Amino acid sequence: MKIERLGQDKIRIFLTFDDLLERGIQKDDMWREIPKVHELFSEMMDQAYSELGFDANGPLAVEVIAMPAQGMVVIVTRGKINISSDGSQMDEEDADEDMYEMEVTLESSDTIMYSFRDFEDVISAAKQLKASRLTEEGKLYSYHGRWILAFDATSSEAPLQNALIAVLAEYGEATSVTSAVLEEYGKAIMPSDAVRELCNHFSS
What we know:
Blueprint: E1 2-7, E2 10-15, H1 17-22, H2 35-52, E3 59-67, E4 71-78, E5 101-108, E6 111-116, H3 119-131, E7 139-143, E8 146-152, H4 158-171, E9 173-174, H5 179-185, E10 187-190, H6 194-201
Parallel strand pairs: 3-5
Antiparallel strand pairs: 1-2, 2-4, 3-4, 6-8, 6-9, 7-8, 7-10
Helix pairs in contact: 3-4, 3-6
């Protein structure tokens, strides 16, 4: 579980599928109201407080984005003021500390994304993907000093996706960056057919 601050009132939590399995939670469970999911959220908020000093009191907007290869990205935004149903501000002692007032949004992403520290690893991954005849597509981005390869998961069947992920995981690592963040803040180096372009430009 990785937690990072996006702003004074916003954090991003990255849960790998291993994080979920360790807690006996399946991917589809995140869409259900079950005790394990509530326990996981409480654990996330405790860790956010201990690592970042992020206090989860008051209303929270929680966005859960399921990603096909990486796991789950949970974005938590804290409200400014705790408002009661009659419109008045609640006192701290009136709020049940064990209860979170949440508005939860659930989304699913169809993009497989892996991050690479070294450009040589990007080239190696691309050559392996082409040699294995897995894909010649993809997009290459530069984001915060890292290289990110992104692939549309809807264009391939599950076994092909798994093989694609296995190659990418050999050279890079799963990233918590979402497609929307990449589009807005990343720089598109190769907006299409990245694997083919990389192999053409850097053939040995």
